[in-house]
Amino acid sequence: MWNIIKEYRHYLATLVLVVVPVIALNAGGKSPADFHWFDRAAVSVSAPVQSAIRWSIETSWDALQSYVMLLSTQSNNRSLALENRRLLNEIAAFQEVARENDRLRHLVDFNAPLEGRKIVAQVIAQDVNPQFRMIRLNKGTKQGVEVGMAVIALEGVVGRVIRAGNDFSDVLSLLDSSSAIDALVQRNRFRGVVEGQGGSTLSMKYLRRTDDVQEGDLIIASGIGGLFPKGLTIGKVTSVKKKNFGISQTVEVAPAADFNRLEEVTVIDPPKVPLEDATLEDVQDRFPGKHTKKEERHGEKHPAKPGDEKAPKTPPTPSAPAAATPPAAHPPGAQ
Amino acid sequence: MIHEIYRAANFLLVVLLCLIFSALQSVVLKLSALSWLELDLLLLVVVFLSLHRGFMEGACLILVIGRVAEIHSGAPTGILTACYLSVFLAILFTKELFLVATTFSSIILAVAGGLIWKVSFLILAQRYGILGNTWRSSLEYLAPFLLSLGMFSRPVFHLMRSLDQWTHVERESEARELTGEEF
After folding, report:
1. How far apart, in whole angstroms, are the C-alpha atoms of residue B171 and residue B183?
2. Which chain A residues are closer than 8 Å to B55 by Cβ?
3. pLDDT tens across B165-177, in order?
4. Is A306 among the domain residues?
5. ipTM, two decimals
6. Which of A46, A75, A143, A177 could form a disulfide with B132 if both were Cys (CB 3.0 to 4.6 A apart)?
7. CATH number of B2-170
8. What is the CATH classification number for the domain harbouring A222?
9. What are the tens digits of pLDDT across the range B6-50?
10. How far, rounded to the nearest angstrom, does the alpha carbon of residue A273 sit from its chain's CA centroid?
11. Are A172 and A181 in contact (CB under 8 A)?
């Protein structure tokens, strides 16, 4: 027996080498695995190096920029003063719009955005492999980051936390080919799933052929799943392709967040109870006052019939057309 | 005894070097000015190890390097390890057929290793449904990827050789090559 093993050791070893990663791939599925002791030890060595390299690059760049900026300070000052005056005017106009928005929100009883703990983190590194789109943050479990939390930037959705160490965490960005998020076309509330393609653009799938989607349409998070607050910008439609056959269309979306220039992001704590499992008490805790208002409205105004002249003419809520749209099929990876 | 200590130290140093390479690759090589290169320093380490290590030691090191790459990536578990192992096995096979004695032949092997890496990655990504549009960017950046591997192979190999000399592994691998011993 030993002689046979010795004779064929090259073949056996090669077979083991081929089989080990294949088993790992089949067992792990499409998602990256969580950190084990070796991974934690390895990342505890590389993460500080990543932070140090990032810091030195940024410091040198800032120093260079400061010097270059000094050369054109006077002209910059003049243009900034002009811009400041223009922005002050705009702020005054926006304050008026904000007040009007508050009044309208109150009138239509619009859903409050999901609130939760927010952790601001800095991007210290990107994926080591250009075919995948992970980013590493400088905040981890010590600062309250947990696996499954949503990550957003000022411009819009970035991704979700897939692994968390003590002082760092890994985020699977929207661009990664194993990433998917339920989304709406803002203009007409058609639903689809935005998937990463591994490149610099996203693809919105499961839109029916007849759904009206145009270039320039804004794509927002639908809020389904409770991970990303409804209404967060995902991106803008850049092209719509309809084949001569088939029931769906392919829509290419440019992400709102600039993934090449991401520096700071916000990690949001998702609701502790998943929306599908939430009890009435959980919902009332999350939106205090909203349901009592609704109950009052139902109690007082429901008897009024549509034909009744006294029936209140409430403006349609933004979510109403979405409810009329039949839900699209979703792959299991959709967030 | 001292020989085993040197050997273990070399193993650990190679892993440490790979961690530093991963850090460099995920920060410096992701800057806009350099990102188009798509340089994979770990792949160069794998090519070097395929040329200068025995089957078992090389395989163990490459399993560890594959894991190092995966924990710095959003890749599914096993895919990068499988790609690195395919490069390792292909170069071992090539080494049996051809004499890899000059620096130029090592550089050519590094470029060929890059090609094997890409092909095995595309096959596995297609098999596990994570290909998306990755094939497009893989083909678009194939030329700079291979070129950068060729350009950087010499300094990386030189660094690795210095590490081997420092831990006295170089002489042993030369002896193994002369005697034809593999395990």
Report:
1. 16
2. 10, 13
3. 888 776 556 555 5
4. no
5. 0.80
6. A177
7. 1.10.1760
8. 2.40.10.340
9. 888 889 999 999 999 999 988 888 887 777 788 899 999 999 999
10. 19
11. no
